[in-house]
Design brief:
single chain; mainly alpha; 81% helix; 0% strand; 111 residues
Length: 111
């Protein structure tokens, strides 16, 4: 669960970098700073995914990435794609953790 979510967040750092390159010609420094803050938070959030706050911050970052479509319109599509990957990381990860817990429970010897 954390591995896939971390990969999504790190890939989004690169996407935000490219979006800032697109935004630099048509928008002011506020748009670049906002994109840099989002990218920096996406870079730092995988370290927080061990706790619930990391998942909350990651979800808020997904929303902010879609919201960056105000600056770069193509970010709406890219943000929706990565939002879907984020949801898939949560759903698939929970199923995987449940399967792993069941496997570990069956391997423990009963006295």
């Amino acid at each position: 669960m954390r591995m896939l979510a971390s990969a999504v967040l790190i890939m989004e750092v690169f996407i935000m970098g490219f979006a800032m390159l697109l935004a630099k010609d048509n928008h002011g420094s506020a748009a670049i700073i906002a994109g840099a803050v989002i990218a920096l938070l996406m870079l730092l959030t995988p370290g927080l995914l061990k706790k619930r706050i990391g998942w909350i911050v990651g979800s808020l970052l997904q929303i902010s990435m879609i919201g960056y479509a105000v600056v770069v319109p193509s970010m709406a599509i890219v943000g929706l794609i990565f939002g879907g990957l984020w949801i898939a990381a949560i759903v698939v990860g929970r199923k995987g953790e449940a399967a792993r817990a069941a496997l570990m429970a069956s391997k423990t010897p009963n006295p």
